[in-house]
Amino acid sequence: MAGVLKPGIKHIIFDLGDVIIPIDLRAPIRNFAVLSGLNETEVESLWREHGLILQYETGLIDDAGFRQHIRTLLKNESWADEVIDTAWNTVLLSLPIERVERIRELKGQYRLFLLSNTSAIHIEKVRNILVELGQPPLEELFERVYYSYEVKMAKPSPEIYEHVLATSGLKAEETLFLDDNPRNIHSAAQLGIHAVQVQPPLTILDYLRDESTNEDIPHSS
């Protein structure tokens, strides 16, 4: 099976977490458990019971509302915003600069987009990470960025992919989508998008190699 940069592909849509920047989804739960004195199972159960993350990532509550929900659910009204933001952002790990450089190389060859289930607090942290690396912000790396909290939709809902295609004038059959979540991949593929699951230990550097290489890489569509 050949690489994913096949003839006919004109647009690439990137996920953010575990595609561009490595993440640890359990890290915020661990940190809030330590801060609150609860165990991780209790923290995770409270978040799921109240649908906190989905509400925040789809813009139903804003930054201040999210922080207050955290304080209320974990029973500590004294936590400063910075304490909550720091614990929340532990999901974000070190960003390999080579991935950013590869995206910049592709920018002149393809129309590039970002589609992420995320929150404003995370995006601000990513901006700071990029500044520290001497790299441009996400809004300059990509022709257009789609954040779930701004469009008030989230993957794997088909509506969010339809929104991206429609608002950026993309044809599904000319579009490559890279994501780490199999549910997101399946949903996008149902619309005719060339959807590829990025699976560790491989990274976008493996999937988005120069087409002149002939090595096989996994491909899902």
From TrEMBL:
Ranges annotated as spanning the membrane: none
Keyword annotations from UniProtKB, A to Z: Hydrolase
Keyword Manganese carried by entry: no
Pfam families on file: Hydrolase
Entries under SUPFAM superfamilies matching the protein: HAD-like (SSF56784)
GO molecular function: hydrolase activity
CDD domains given in the database record: HAD_sEH-N_like (cd02603)
Cited PANTHER family: ALPHA-D-GLUCOSE 1-PHOSPHATE PHOSPHATASE, FLAVIN MONONUCLEOTIDE HYDROLASE 1, CHLOROPLATIC
Protein name as it appears in the record: HAD-IA family hydrolase
UniProt source species: Larkinella terrae
